[in-house]
Design goal:
This protein has about 140 residues and is of the alpha+beta class. About 20% of the residues lie in helices and about 25% in strands.
């Protein structure tokens, strides 16, 4: 089943607005999906191991720390985002083949891609295939 996990994804508004510009998301999708917002993140980079450590890496001479404003500072709900995008995709004629076997993909310059869904199903033809099956994918 196509769904997002419950744990929030971290992303920046700049990245979300790029997806709006491409037509993948709408501003309403962003408003629905953003659950937490904070100024930025502290990033630390150690160059030697010291344990236990009291204070910052920099103060202890074991590395460097920086603050990254507006980077990965939004927590979005993947479940909400994927649901909204999926509905829009389907309303525009897109196909989401949930729980379907995938036997392979054939690529053709004349028709794009043909997805082999097994002996009992007709192949799906498309110009774009998104494989979200991870390392278990047969592709």
């Amino acid at each position: 089943k196509l769904l997002g996990r419950e744990q929030e994804w971290n992303i920046s508004m700049k990245e979300l607005l790029e997806l709006v510009e491409l037509g993948v998301l709408t501003n309403a999708d962003i408003d629905d999906a953003v659950k937490t917002e904070f100024p930025g993140c502290r990033a630390g980079f150690k160059n030697k191991e010291v344990s236990p450590l009291q204070g910052s890496y920099f103060e202890n001479g074991v590395g460097y720390e920086c603050f990254t404003p507006d980077v990965l500072n939004l927590g979005i709900s993947p479940a909400v985002l994927i649901e909204n995008v999926s509905k829009r995709f389907k309303s525009l004629g897109g196909t989401v083949a949930e729980g379907s076997p995938l036997r392979g993909v054939a690529i053709s310059e004349s028709i794009g891609a043909a997805i082999d869904m097994g002996e009992t199903e007709e192949p799906i033809t498309t110009r774009l295939v998104l494989d979200c099956m991870g390392n278990a994918s047969p592709i």
